[in-house]
Amino acid sequence: MKMLGFDTSTSACTVALLNGDVVSVRHQHAPMQQAHLILPMIQELLDSSSLTVNELDAIAYGCGPGSFTGIRISNSVAQGIGFAIQKPIIPISSLATLAQTAFLEQQWSRLLVAMDARMGKIYWATYTINASGLAELIGNERLSQPEEITSSYHTDLYGIGDGWEAYKDILIGSNLTLKGIDARQLPSAKALLQLATLKYEKGEWITAAQALPVYLSRDPLSTNA
Fold first, then answer.
1. How many CB atoms lie within 10 A of CB 30?
2. Residue 218's pLDDT band (boundaries 50, 70, 90)?
């Protein structure tokens, strides 16, 4: 299996390459610089593995939600490479990637991911880590006001994402019991590839023409995960 994965939905530009059993990663915290960095980072990974894009089996990318510009960069790169090589495209939720990264790096297994959506709102979702060690969505991903956030998990819950920095006091006041918070956690393309590999094996992929960014709209009817 040879798969390229990347995410630019936050202030990080993160790229990873799966080549057999080896995962190589390039990761930079570089706000507003992702458009300049992502293609050189991809080329560097390919060169270091002596691969060309035509030898890839699939491309995985962070489809959102997240930074409007960031997810469009990721989507455009995935589409461009996908059209060129005509290989499967695997969109991965940016919230799921954050949850998977927190498990990969910190072994946190029940997560409320909250990403600042600006204008007083957050993108959020609750995830649990399943028996296979992969982030599994509980309920739906949503766009809500911070005071509306709840979770079916009331214990052993960890808060992840910059929404916890922007709205920590409001979120903690929403009857959430937390074991820890990491508002600075950034997504890792290595974690993204873990989620994408399963989707590839299950045939859950799309073509380049079908690749679109994910923009969540506000759901006024229900906010429970």
1. 16
2. low
